[in-house]
Every structure is written in C-alpha cells, then in structure tokens.
C-alpha cells in the first residue's frame, strides 16, 4: 500500500546543511505542538524501549510452554493471559517488538540505498537511463505491495528473512521516485555544474553532492512508509508466509490465536492492538512530519 | 432615506490576514453616496482587500472597524444570513482577474444565470434569457454562443465583461469594481464605463472603482482615495487631482507617461516611512 | 471534438508505455514462477514416478530449454489463452480465477462505495474546517483506518458484531443453509438472488457482505479522505470561490456546487486507485471471512506452491491495476472540459 504517498509534499525538503538544522528544529517544535504526532513519538519510544529491555520487562520466558496453564484469561500472573501452549502473551509481545524493529531496520537499510541509487542515477543522467529506470519503477508500482510480496515470499519460501527481502523488493519504488524528483530539482544547481567543470566523475558527484541532498526527504519518506511495512509484515505473518512459529511475531500470533478466538479473546486482541498502535504511531508521526515540511500547509492562508 | 446620509460609511477599517504581522489595511475611513469613488494605489496597497472587507469575504483575516454601515445594515454585526441577502443582490463586486475568477468547469452563461437565480425565483429559461440580455448589454456580440462557452474558451476581455454582467445582473445598489476594464481595449472600455456610468446616473447606485489608472479615475470618478501600504494617504475630488498635496500622490501623477509630455526618464516613485503615520484630516 | 495530432501522439505514447508496463508485468510473473521452490514436474507426475516419466514431462514443459526460450513459450501459451492447470484443483487456472473473481469484485465494489461515501464528505469537511478540531478528529479517524491490520479488525468485528451481538452474518457469502439455492448467473450473489427473486438469500448475502465491506471501505476511506481534503484545500483558496460568495451563495452551496464540482474528476482517479488497493485488503479479509473469492484462491495456492495459479493471479492483479489506471485516465479526459 503505497497509497498515502503524495510525492509533491516532499520535494521541498531542506537543501543546505544549516537549513537542515533549522528544519530539524522546526520539526521538533512542530511535533511538540501537535499532540497526535507527539503520541506517535511516545509509542515509538515505548516500542524501542521494550525491545531493548525485553528480558528485564518480561515476566516469563516467551518460548517456555506451560501446558498446565493454557488459555488463561488476563490476570496478575499473566497480564495479557496465556496462549494455547500456556506461554505468557505479555512476554511474547515484548519479544515480538524486537522482531518488528528488526523488520523495520532491515527494510530501511535495504530500501533506502536501492531507492537512492535508482532515483539519483535516473535523475542525474536523464534521457534513456531515466526512461528505463522509471519504467522499471512503474512496473513494480503497478502491483499492490502486499500481493507482490506474497508472490515473492511464495517463490522464496516462507520465513522471516524472506519476508523482509520480499517487502524490500516492493518498497523501494516510491523512494526511487522521490530521490529522482529531488535530484531533478538541483541537477542544474551551480555547485553541481562547478563540480562537473572541475572534472569530477558522475559517481563522485552523485555520491558526494546529490545523495546527501536527498537524504533528509528520503529518511522522512522511509518513516512514512514504515506503517505500510509493518502491516505488510504482519499480513505475511498472519498468512503463515512470514515469521514461523514459535517466533513471537505479532501477525503470526494472531494467526494461531484465531482458532481459540471465540472463547479466548485475549489471544488475538493484544497482538492486534500492538500492531495497530505501532502502525498508527508511524502514520501520525509521518503525517506530522509531512505537514512540518510542506510550506504550502505551514502558512495558513 | 435622506440624501445626506451616505450609502456606505466606513470608519477606521483595519484588516490583518492571519499569519501575517502587519495589517494589509489600516484605519481606512471614507463615505460613499450615490457617486463614483475611485481607489488608486500601487499593487499590494490593499485596494482589493478593502473591497472584500466590505462584503465580509475574508475568512482568513481579522477585521476591525469603529463603524462599517451599508444603508440600514451594520456590516460589523450583521450575521452571515444577512450578508447572504446583501451579497449579489444589494452589493456586489466585480473581481479583478477573470482568468481566475470564473469557475473553470462551468459554462459562463450558467455562472451568470446563477447570480440571478440565487436571489430571484425563476425558471432556468428566464434566468438564461436574463443572462443573455445582460451579455449583450456589456457589448458581447454573440451572447447566445458565449453563454455556452467555458471560461478557458473566452478571451480576457470577454471574461471581464462576463464578470461584469454577472455582478450587475441582480441590480445591486452598490458595486465595487476591482479594475473592471484592465483587459479591455479602448472602445470596449468606453462602452463598459458608460454602462457603469449609466447605472450611477439612472439607478442611483454607488460605485467604487478600484484602479491603477490615474487618468481613468480622474475622468470617470467623482472622488478619489489614494492608498499607500494599507492606508488612505489622501482623499480628494477627482478634478482636484492635479493639486494633490501628498507627496505620494504627486509622485504617482508624475510617474504617469503622457502623450506629448517631456521625453525625460520617468521619475521613480519616492517612498517615505513617515507616510505610514496616520494621515492628518484633510478637508 | 476533433482528434488533433497532439491527442494522437499522446494516445500513442500512452499506448506504448502501457505495452512496456505489460511486458514488464509478464517478465515479473515469469520470474516469480521460475524461482518458486516447488517442482512443477513432481507436481504433475506425482511422488513415485519413474525417472523416465519425469524426464518426459520435464521436456514437455520445456524446462530443458534456455530461460529466454521458456519465456517465449510462456508468452505463446498465454496468447492462446492457456494459463496452465492448477495443481490444487486440477482445473484450468483461468477457469478457477474467473469463477472466484465475481465474489471479490462484489465485495470490493460494495467496499469502495462505503469508502467513497465515508471518505469524500469527511475530506471536504476536514478541508472546510482546516486546523479546527473537526479536522484533527477526522485526521486521526482516517489514519486509524489506514493503520488497522485488516485481518485483525475482521476477527474483532466477527467477535463483536457476529458472535456477541448477532447483527451480521458470519463467514462466507451467505448462510450454509442457502448455498446452492440460487442459480449462478453472473456470479454476483446480490444480483443473482435478486434476479431469481430469492429475497431470503439476498438478505442473507447482504448480512454477510456488510461487515467485511464496511471494514475494507473504512480502511480505503483513509486515502480518499486525505486526497479529498488536499484537493479541496487547493480549490477553496481559488478566486472563483470568492466569485460564488460575492453572488450571494452560502458557504455550503459554494463548497458543493463550485469547489467540489472542480475536484470530481480528480476524485474519480483517486477512487479508481483506491479500488485497486482494496484488492490487497481483500486478500487478507477473505481469509478471515472464508470468502470464496480471488484472494482466498491466491493464498491457498501460495500455501502449497501452486505455481501456475500464483503466476496467473499476480498477472491478473497487475492487469486490473493497469486497467484501472487507463480507465481513470479516460474518465479524466471525458469529464474535464479543459482536457477535451
Ligand atoms: N489571502 C491573503 N493572505 C495573506 N496576505 C494577503 C492575502 N491577500 C492579500 N494579501 C496581502 O495584502 C496586501 C494587500 O493586497 P491587495 O490584494 O488588497 O492589494 P491590491 O492593492 O489589490 O493590489 P493589486 O493592485 O495588485 O491588485 C498585499 O501585501 C498582499 O500580499
Ligand atoms: Mg487587487
């Protein structure tokens, strides 16, 4: 779902380093003023902290089964109850946040460079290179990302790593589009022309001058896309094509909990709430960032 | 209603657009009878803003005034419902730029007819007839055809006349014309001005004419307000324009190219911060 | 309207770019099919076939040829309408898909209607009340819709509205009781049952479709709301809106008759795109609601690595997307006087 992306808003990201600093300060001020975005930040902080300190915060081992205590309702001993194998859902959710963070991190690491590479090269060289690369991007964009990821995972075999690969394969095109648009705006800039006159190679110009310029907006777009990535990952997990049991991946937890849903509502409710709040947090945060960076929306005409 | 009481009475009108620090219009006062009042001033001096403020059409601005009356209505306190009755029917405004002022996806004629149908209960056919009649009144040669054109299919001058037709259709008592003739050629301009003039003479409407064009205002209007940076720097009778006392007005006059005048370089307009002080009362 | 040269060139260029995209689509599906871990030969001949039988089929499928030749064989098969046979059902894949598609289209259409009816007015309202509390509430509400894991919301919905409250039907397209009672004419159950005058079945179908459609619609309304809001914001500041106000039109009339009229064309594009994205949600929600549609067919095929079925499904989704893009493009041309 690359649906909430309108590239138009992003092209006006800061260009110079000092401006980037100013922008960063503006963003901070803006976030502080906008409660929904602040909520997003808080949720993400909680996510990161619970991933870091999962062993400390967890009350049980997330993998240890306790067949005496299966399907227990939430109580003081088990905050969010236990699952069909007697494992503590609260502790599993905590450890699951590590998986979520891993997915987010790895996808970003893969998608950012690919998108930047394709976008800057297409934008810098223009002409045939541009046409070919952008056609390629369009082909990938002409699928809904979940379905394409599904197909890739099916081809590669279901596992967490393959899910990450598949998601990355479908998540780079919007980044490439954005990087290309950014590159086009300052391809003509004087300092690029100067570098070219001094005989700097294209690789060097792209790497030294253009990529750093695209960085801020690409990072923001990555943040924006994380909500989609999380939902896709959870969807893959739910269909049994992502993380495999006994990994405490939230989507997979919902899939196994589904069988016991009618009598034990907590099995699906809590992992679902976790997915919902993290993806909502990214969406709120991204929405706030977009507003903060869109000059058209800043002055209130 | 007695002749002495002005149709429009504005005292210390100020308008500040939200998100800006300085007001676009500051302490503007004037009255208007059944006459032609010109407002001149350079671009950005707040002329259009004054016009819109009178119709209370500035949703993103703060408007303050000591007094703002139109006939028996206190515009400052008038509720939106009252304003809906006034707008179009009793006071209307010919907007500046026909390229942007007409709805791009609606046929011109329908937009004109809408002005009539908003205030008068009538059939579509009647409104159409009325609109076509008005179109020919503003010197459009083939009104039936123009009625069915989209705004991007008409020329700038035609658009301006369509706008004029639209705003005069419901017989308003006060017309604010924001540069109504800037895109018209000389012959059409004269005809259009004659229509407006006729309205003032025969129907006794009040006309506010916003313009850059000093010579037009001089020959067409009874009185002139000179605006500079949101303030009225001088108010005078049009025929006294040459005797203007304020340096800004003198500058504006001197900056007019004149046929047969000297071929020297046109003087550059002088600007002084002191002009931003409240203007002293001038008789 | 006359077709001038510029139009022709535009149409040609567009046709070419569609063809290129289509070709890319075919390559993509082909690659996906080739790297699938399942052995297509094994799937046909079974586990205990002899080596000789295996090799025969291997050659029959053209698997001994170089990749590019295999790709052209694939294209040739597609051109003759041969999409292969499903391992799971043993029927031609295309037949399976055509059978499953109406259920999905019915669901998605119902959903997009709900999504548009929800998203468009909310977007207009958010634009009109920009930066006021209504705007903020609408923003959070629609982002919420965009953040829901739809398969989870589906379950919770079933739990609450079906299991607890009993307001809606459960999984499937209709009650077990009615299955097979309505002759299959169009595949669209609501239409078929209405045509057959089977109002009980119609009511049952309605009770079953309403929950998944509402959830899908809500999730797609987020995008529609957002775009409507931003389109409207562009229009509200336009001068012609002021013109309408000068004429004495009320704010509501101005908004709907003038500003909104100007974004209708853009909205059509958006709704078409949202419709395509719905298919994605449909894959997940069909699993939850045991909805016998395209999404379920795709996921079941994926689970057992049914290569032909998966390839064709992906191809069809791509085709639907491309078609939606073309349709929205055409609508754009037809409805906007400036592009005629
Ligand atoms: N919607 C708005 N928001 C903020 N500022 C505005 C807005 N509209 C006008 N202004 C500012 O108010 C001032 C006065 O504008 P106004 O349109 O009244 O000028 P004007 O005298 O009509 O100029 P022109 O002769 O070019 O039409 C200008 O400085 C302008 O930038
Ligand atoms: Mg103006």
From TrEMBL, chain A:
Chief place where the protein resides: membrane
ABC transmembrane type-1 domain segment(s): 97-286
Residue intervals passing through the bilayer: 38-58, 99-126, 146-172, 218-244, 264-286
Keyword Calcium included in the entry's annotation: no
Entry keywords, A to Z: Cell membrane, Membrane, Peptide transport, Protein transport, Transmembrane, Transmembrane helix, Transport
UniProt cross-references to InterPro entries, sorted A to Z: BP-dependent_transpt_permease, MetI-like, MetI-like_sf, OppC_N
Gene3D superfamilies, A to Z: MetI-like
Membrane-related topology note: Multi-pass membrane protein
Gene Ontology terms describing biological process: peptide transport; protein transport; transmembrane transport
One of the record's GO cellular component terms: plasma membrane
Pfam families cross-referenced by the UniProt entry: BPD_transp_1 (PF00528), OppC_N (PF12911)
Family note: Belongs to the binding-protein-dependent transport system permease family.
Name of the protein in question: Peptide/nickel transport system permease protein
Native source species: Tranquillimonas rosea
TrEMBL record, chain B:
Record keywords, A-Z: ATP-binding, Cell membrane, Membrane, Nucleotide-binding, Transport
Record flagged with keyword Membrane: yes
Protein's cellular compartments: Cell inner membrane
Keyword Iron: no
Bilayer topology annotation: Peripheral membrane protein
One GO cellular component term: plasma membrane
Record domain ABC transporter: where: 8-254
Superkingdom in the source lineage: Bacteria
Molecular function, one GO term: ATP binding
First-listed, main subcellular location of the protein, grouped into a coarse class: membrane
Family per similarity comment: Belongs to the ABC transporter superfamily.
Protein name: Peptide/nickel transport system ATP-binding protein
UniProtKB/TrEMBL annotation, chain C:
Family annotation (SUPFAM superfamilies): MetI-like
Name recorded for this polypeptide: Peptide/nickel transport system permease protein
Extent of the signal sequence: none
Molecular function in Gene Ontology: dipeptide transmembrane transporter activity
Localization of this protein: Cell membrane
Domain of life: Bacteria
InterPro entries with a match to the protein in the record: BPD_transp_1_N (IPR045621), MetI-like (IPR000515), MetI-like_sf (IPR035906)
Domain ABC transmembrane type-1 stretches: 101-332
The entry's keywords: Cell membrane, Membrane, Transmembrane, Transmembrane helix, Transport
UniProt family annotation: Belongs to the binding-protein-dependent transport system permease family.
Keyword Transmembrane: yes
This protein's GO CC annotations: plasma membrane
Species of the source: Tranquillimonas rosea
Topology of the protein relative to the lipid bilayer: Multi-pass membrane protein
Family annotation (PROSITE patterns): ABC_TM1
Segments traversing the membrane: 12-32, 107-128, 149-168, 267-289, 309-332
């Amino acid at each position: 779902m690359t649906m909430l992306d309108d590239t138009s808003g992003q092209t006006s990201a800061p260009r110079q380093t000092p401006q980037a600093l100013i922008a960063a300060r503006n963003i901070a001020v803006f976030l502080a003023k906008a409660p929904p975005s602040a909520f997003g930040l808080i949720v993400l902080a909680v996510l990161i902290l619970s991933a870091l300190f999962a062993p400390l915060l967890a009350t049980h081992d997330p993998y240890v089964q306790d067949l005496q205590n299966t399907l227990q309702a939430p109580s003081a001993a088990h905050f969010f109850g236990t699952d069909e194998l007697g494992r503590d859902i609260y502790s599993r959710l905590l450890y699951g946040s590590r998986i979520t963070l891993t997915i987010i991190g790895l996808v970003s690491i893969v998608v950012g460079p690919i998108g930047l590479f394709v976008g800057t090269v297409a934008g810098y060289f223009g002409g045939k290179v541009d046409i070919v690369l952008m056609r390629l991007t369009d082909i990938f964009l002409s699928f809904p990302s979940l379905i394409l990821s599904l197909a890739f995972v099916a081809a590669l075999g279901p596992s967490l790593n393959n899910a990450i690969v598949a998601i990355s394969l479908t998540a780079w095109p919007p980044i490439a589009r954005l990087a290309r648009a950014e590159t086009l705006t300052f391809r003509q800039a004087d300092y690029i022309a100067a570098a070219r006159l001094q005989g700097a190679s294209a690789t060097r110009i792209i790497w030294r001058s253009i990529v750093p310029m695209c960085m801020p907006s690409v990072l923001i777009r990555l943040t924006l896309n994380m909500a989609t990535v999380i939902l896709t990952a959870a969807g893959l997990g739910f269909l049994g094509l992502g993380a495999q049991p006994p990994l405490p991946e939230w989507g997979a937890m919902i899939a196994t909990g589904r069988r016991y849903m009618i009598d034990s509502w907590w099995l699906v409710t809590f992992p679902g709430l976790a997915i919902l709040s993290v993806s909502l947090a990214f969406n709120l945060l991204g929405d706030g960032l977009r507003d903060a960076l869109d000059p058209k929306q800043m002055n209130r005409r | 209603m007695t002749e002495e009481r002005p149709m429009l009475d504005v005292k210390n009108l100020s308008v500040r657009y939200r998100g800006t620090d300085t007001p676009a219009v500051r302490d503007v006062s004037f009255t208007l009878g059944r006459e032609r009042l010109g407002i001149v001033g350079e671009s950005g001096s707040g002329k259009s803003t004054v016009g819109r403020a009178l119709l209370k059409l500035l949703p993103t601005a703060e408007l303050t005034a000591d007094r703002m009356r139109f006939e028996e209505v206190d515009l400052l306190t008038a509720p939106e419902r009252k304003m809906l009755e006034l707008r179009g029917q009793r006071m209307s405004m010919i907007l500046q730029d026909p390229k942007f002022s007409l709805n791009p996806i609606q046929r011109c004629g329908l937009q004109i007819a809408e002005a009539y149908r908003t205030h008068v209960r009538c059939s579509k056919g009647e409104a159409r007839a009325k609109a076509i009649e008005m179109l020919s009144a503003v010197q459009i040669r083939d009104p039936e055809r123009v009625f069915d054109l989209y705004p991007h299919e008409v020329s700038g001058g035609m658009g301006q006349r369509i706008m004029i037709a639209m705003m005069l259709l419901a017989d308003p008592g006060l017309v604010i014309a924001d540069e109504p003739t800037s895109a018209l050629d000389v012959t059409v301009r004269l005809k259009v001005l004659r229509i407006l003039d006729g309205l003032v003479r025969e129907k006794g409407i009040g006309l506010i004419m916003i313009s850059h064009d000093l010579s037009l205002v001089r020959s067409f209007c009874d009185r002139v307000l000179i605006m500079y940076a949101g303030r009225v720097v001088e108010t005078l009778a049009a025929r006294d324009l040459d005797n203007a006392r304020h340096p800004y007005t003198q500058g504006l006059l001197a900056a007019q190219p004149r046929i047969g005048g000297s071929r020297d370089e046109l003087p550059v307009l002088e600007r002084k911060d002191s002009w931003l002080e409240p203007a002293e009362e001038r008789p | 309207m006359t077709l001038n040269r510029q139009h022709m060139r535009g149409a040609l260029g567009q046709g070419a770019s569609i063809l290129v995209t289509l070709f890319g689509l075919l390559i993509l599906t082909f690659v996906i099919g080739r790297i699938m871990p399942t052995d297509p030969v094994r799937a046909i001949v079974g586990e205990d076939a002899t080596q000789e039988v295996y090799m025969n089929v291997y050659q029959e499928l053209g698997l001994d040829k170089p990749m590019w030749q295999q790709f052209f064989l694939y294209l040739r098969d597609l051109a003759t309408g041969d999409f292969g046979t499903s391992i799971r059902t043993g029927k031609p894949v295309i037949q399976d898909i055509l059978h499953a598609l109406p259920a999905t289209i019915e669901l998605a259409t119902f959903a997009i209607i709900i999504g548009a009816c929800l998203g468009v007015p909310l977007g207009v309202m958010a634009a009109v009340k920009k930066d006021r509390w209504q705007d903020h509430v609408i923003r959070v509400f629609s982002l919420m819709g965009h953040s829901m894991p739809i398969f989870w919301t589906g379950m919770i919905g079933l739990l609450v509205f079906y299991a607890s409250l009993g307001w809606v039907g459960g999984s499937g397209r209709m009650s077990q009781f009615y299955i097979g009672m309505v002759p299959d004419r169009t595949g669209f159950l609501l239409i078929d049952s209405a045509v057959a005058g089977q109002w009980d079945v119609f009511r049952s179908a309605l009770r079953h479709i309403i929950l998944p459609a509402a959830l899908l619609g809500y999730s797609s309304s987020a995008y529609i709301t957002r775009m409507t809001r931003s389109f409207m914001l562009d229009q509200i500041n336009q001068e012609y809106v002021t013109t309408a106000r000068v004429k004495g039109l009320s704010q509501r009339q101005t908004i709907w008759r003038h500003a909104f009229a100007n974004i209708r064309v853009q909205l059509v594009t958006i709704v078409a795109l949202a419709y395509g994205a719905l298919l994605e949600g449909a894959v997940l929600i069909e699993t939850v609601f045991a909805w016998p549609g395209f999404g379920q067919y795709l996921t079941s095929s994926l689970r057992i690595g049914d290569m032909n079925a998966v390839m064709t499904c992906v191809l069809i989704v791509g085709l639907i997307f491309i078609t939606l893009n073309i349709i929205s493009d055409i609508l754009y041309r037809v409805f906007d006087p400036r592009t005629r």
